[in-house]
Amino acid sequence: MERRVAERLRSTLGPLGLEAHAFKVGWYNAVLQPAFHLPYPDDTLAFVVLSTPSMFDKALKPFVNKERLKIIRDPVDQCVSHHLSRVKEKFPDQRVDVMFDYEMLPSRKPKFLAQTAAHVSGAAYYYQRKDVKLDPWGKKKIFGVCIHPKYGGWFAIRGLLLFPDIQVPFLEQPAPVDCVSTDEKRIELLELFNFHWQDGRYRDIIDVKERYSEEQKAYFATPPAERFRLLGLSQEAQ
Length: 238
Fold this sequence. Notes:
It comes from Brachypodius melanocephalos (black-headed bulbul). GO terms for molecular function: cobalamin binding; cyanocobalamin reductase (cyanide-eliminating) (NADP+) activity; demethylase activity; FAD binding. It is found in: Cytoplasm. Its EC number is 1.16.1.6, 2.5.1.151. It is a single chain. This protein is an alpha+beta fold. It is 33% helix and 16% strand. The chain has helices at residues 2-13, 25-30, 55-67, 75-87, 114-120, 183-195, 214-221, 224-230, and strands at 18-24, 44-51, 97-100, 125-127, 145-147, 156-167. The strands form two sheets. The chain has a four-stranded antiparallel beta sheet with strand order 1-2-6-3, with helices on both faces. A two-stranded antiparallel sheet has the order 4-5. The longest helix has 13 residues, at 55-67.
């Protein structure tokens, strides 16, 4: 069952520059405190959805051109929301719950921890302070970051698709590719991400197969309020 769902998602999302990676809710809940658990049985089938560098041209620009007058908030969020909501139409006989990376619970906690979901699905390796043997940071707060084996840091985690009626007790968990395997490189990655994230150097911590275009880099480097202009949208749309 998981394979059929995965193939349908691949054929639907792949042409949009989106990837879907399967996991069991239990894998995710097992590594988090109860306050962050997803409220589903452990064997429930879920997919984490990533946007790859090609999403900008394959999904965002066509969406903006077609839905120009309907864009009233962040264009990328609205584009991803549109396409993931349409995924439900591909599964008329299944319940599909969708969570987006920007959604918050009433407690102000995120609905899901995106990087943990990417790691347990095998999509990308979530490098954290605990992955460094000789920690050089003392009392500093150090945030972790996911690195994709093909795109490095040139990707984003956009949402979850959950299939509450599909239980997959025998699904085998794939290990994420440990592509930043030395202590020195992991320290460099976390230093770049925590203290120099604006320049994006952490994204190239490995040799990548594909990265954002110059146009896409300029878009994400622009303050959100000014991005509408770059896409040819009027400020009134905001």
